[in-house]
Amino acid sequence: MTTKVSAEEMAKQRDFIRRVRELLEKYPAPPKAHVHTFGCQQNVSDGEKIKGMLCEMGYGLCDTPDGAELVIFNTCAVRENAEDRVFGNLGALKHNKQANPDMIIGVCGCMTEQEHVVKKIKRSFPHVDMVFGTNALHMLPELLYKQLCGRKRDFFIPKNDGVIAEGVPLRRENPLKASIPIMYGCNNFCSYCIVPYVRGRERSRDTEDIVREAENAVKSGAREILLLGQNVNSYGKELGTNFAELLRRVNAIDGEFRICYMSSHPKDATRGLIDAIAECEKVTRHFHLPVQSGSNRILELMNRRYTREDYIAITEYIREKVPNAALTSDIIVGFPGETYNDFCETLSLIRQVKFDSLYTFIYSPRKGTKAAEMDDPASAEEKGKWFRELLDVQSEIGRGMYEKYVGKTLRVLCEGEGRSNPALLTGRTEQDVIVDFDGDRSLIGKFVDVRIEQAFDWMLSGKTIE
Ligand code: 5AD
Ligand code: SF4
Hints:
CATH class of the largest domain: Alpha Beta
Structural class: alpha/beta
Strand content: 15-25%
Bound molecules: 5'-deoxyadenosine, iron/sulfur cluster
CATH superfamily of the largest domain: Methylthiotransferase, N-terminal domain
Helix content: 25-40%
Number of helices: 13
Largest sheet: 6 strands, parallel
C-alpha cells in the first residue's frame, strides 16, 4: 500500500491555497498569523511547512497571538509537562478571541492524535475552531478555506498508518540550517513512548526527493543539513536501502556544509553505519545515542532491545573509529518499577561512557502506552532525589571535559553574535560544542578556523585564525 499523498490531492491543496489568497485580498494589508510550535525538531520541521503554506496563502507571520487573525498551536505529547504547557497557552487565547471574535484558532501536532485530548478540547476549549491530526498537515489550505467561509468547528483526525506529502511549501526558520525529514513515524514501541501512537508507522521518503531537497538547500545557502526522523537508523528498510547509503549520497553533494541527523536508536546503530559516518567527512562528529537506562532489567521493560553491554560496545566502537567524537544521550529516571539499584546501574553507565552532556527526564506516564499500565511504586519525591543525584554525577563528569580542546584549532560554523558578549561571534564545532570568538560580522554563515584558548563547563572561547 502506498502512503504517498497523490499528485491530484496535492494539486487540490494548491488550489485551496489560491482560493484562500483570494479571500484574504479583502484585507488592506496581509492579515497576521501566529504559529507556536512545541516539542522536538520533527515538530519544528512541521511548523516550517505550516508557515510555508500560510505565507503562500497571503498571511504575514507574527511572534505573538496579539493582533493575529489566525493562531495555530503545533503541539507535543511526549511528556505531561509539554501537554500542560499547551493547555495553559490555549486557555490564555480565550482573551485574544474575546478581543477579536473573528480570530481563527487551530490546534495540530501530536496531542491531537489522542482521543482524550480531543475530548478535552471539545469540552473545555470552545474557542478552538479547528483541530487537525499529524496526517492532515498538508490539508491545512482546505481546512482553513472552510473556516474562512463557514466557521463550523472542525475536528479532522484521519485514522491511518501515516502518509508522506511531498511538495508542501516551506519557510525555514534559519537560512543557515535546513531540517529535512527523511522518514516519519516509529515502529519501535518503547513501552514509555507515545510517539508510535501519534505519528503512525515508519515510512521513508524516497532517497531522490531527499537528495534533491538537500542540494537545493545547499544552493540557497544552508550550511547545515539536519536529516530528521524518529529513528533515522532504520531509514529505507521498506525501500531496500539504508541510512548509511543516504549519508553517502548527501555527503557527495558539492559545497561546504555539515550533515547532522536525529534521532538514533542504539539497537540500529550498526558498525557498518559508524564506518560510513567515519568515512563521510561532512557528517558531524557528534553522536546523540539515547540510552534511557543503564539497567538491563529496566531496558527490557522499556522494550529497548539492547543491553547495557551492547550499548557500551557500540560507544567503544565509535570512540575507536571516530576518536574526536562527542557523545550525548537521553536518560529517563523513575521508569515504573525502577529501584535505587537499577538507578545506580544508570549512574555506573554514565561514569563509564563519560558523555559530553545528557538530556535527562523524569518518567511521565502516557495514556495508552504499556508502561502506563505497570506498577509504579517509587514516589515522586524519591524520583526527584534520584534525578538530582543524576545531575550532580553528570556535572562532576562534565567538569573539565572541554579542557582537552584548549590549544587546538577547530572548524566552527559561525552562526551569529557571541553568547557571552555581543561584540564577539558564536558558532558550533563539529562536536556541536559552542565557541565564542572574535571576528567581523561578515563571517556569519561561514566556516571559520578558531584556536581554542579557554574552556568553560558548557562552552569554549578562542581566536579566529587568519
Ligand atoms: N517520560 C519521560 N521521558 C520520555 N521520553 C520519551 N517518552 C518519555 C516519557 N513518557 C524522553 C526519552 C526520549 C526523549 C525524546 O524524551 O528520553 O529519548
Ligand atoms: Fe516530537 Fe514526540 Fe513531541 Fe511529537 S510527541 S512533538 S514526535 S517529541
